[in-house]
């Protein structure tokens, strides 16, 4: 995956006119604009690890941005109260998704698709289908600041990935989540609270989508009703591509981070080439298809590697060191003429 990023960087460094791609300013711009997508993708990784899908992550981001801006700009709420309200909206959305899928047993794809559609409608209604600027200066200052020359939101996104990695790899909760995602019934038999883990994964994904929305508003200083759905496809592409690296065959935070950087490099290079927007859409869709294919191959390879090896046991009467022939999956004793 890292090699793929390097190859893309070299390619765009060659083909982008004026050498504009391989500049410090361009990489700083990519690092500044990728955190919202990275945080949303990390949230999706949690849900996928628990064995579910969530198509409402983008619309959740959109509604949280609309809530924050509407309360802070239009209603005059203090920034802290508006942030708390946006977080509460995210938690409510995650809880609704959890109830629909886990409690009521609805299909996750259909339920979250419906939820996302409703959220997109509410976002448009709150913002009256207009971009609303003017969010508090404190939020913009925080999101445009740097830490040792690195954009602060990027550092925050990496910190979130580190926390998720620790939980996923070093805690019983992470191990239970992996078990629930790989086999619910088997996990239940071992005492894992599968339903609780699935419900919590929807809440966590929605909360991180809300955090991504807050980061986005701070960076652009406004809320756009059309923004949210654009984050769904890159998040899925990053999560599935991430399952082919670091921890092959498993959704994992660091794999998602590397993959979202790959997607960002590709999109930035295509945009700097001046190509039409449909090319970027084709790239994103193609990346998702490749990601799903590679993730499937990695999972199959992992399953085969984990399959126990069963030595062939000679049947009674066979000479030592001679394996019996296999017919229909069972050993058949060698037939020897009696003298």
Protein model, in words:
The chain is mainly alpha-helical. The protein has a domain at 19-227. The protein is 69% helix and 4% strand. The chain is built from 14 helices and 6 strands. The strands form 3 sheets. A two-stranded antiparallel sheet has the order 1-4. A two-stranded antiparallel ribbon has the order 2-3. It is globular, with a radius of gyration of 25 Å. The model is unreliable at 322-339 (pLDDT under 50).
Core attributes:
339 residues, mainly alpha, two-stranded antiparallel ribbon, globular
* Strand portion: under 5%
Strand order of the largest sheet: 1-4
The portion of residues assigned to helices is 55-70%
Q: From the alpha carbons, calculate the radius of gyration and give it in angstroms.
A: 25 Å
- Overall spatial form: globular
**What's the pLDDT, averaged over the residues?**
87
Q: Tell me the number of helical segments per DSSP (H or I, 4 or more residues long).
A: 14
Low-confidence stretches: 322-339
Number of strands: 6
| Span between termini | 65 Å
Query: From N to C, what is the helix and strand string?
Result: HHHHHHEHEEHHHHEHHHEE
Q: Can you give me a brief rundown of this structure?
A:
This protein has 339 residues and is mostly helical. The chain has a domain at 19-227.
Give the SSE layout.
Blueprint: H1 2-15, H2 24-33, H3 35-49, H4 57-74, H5 79-103, H6 108-127, E1 132-133, H7 137-143, E2 146-147, E3 150-151, H8 152-170, H9 172-182, H10 184-189, H11 194-220, E4 222-223, H12 232-242, H13 253-272, H14 277-306, E5 326-327, E6 330-331
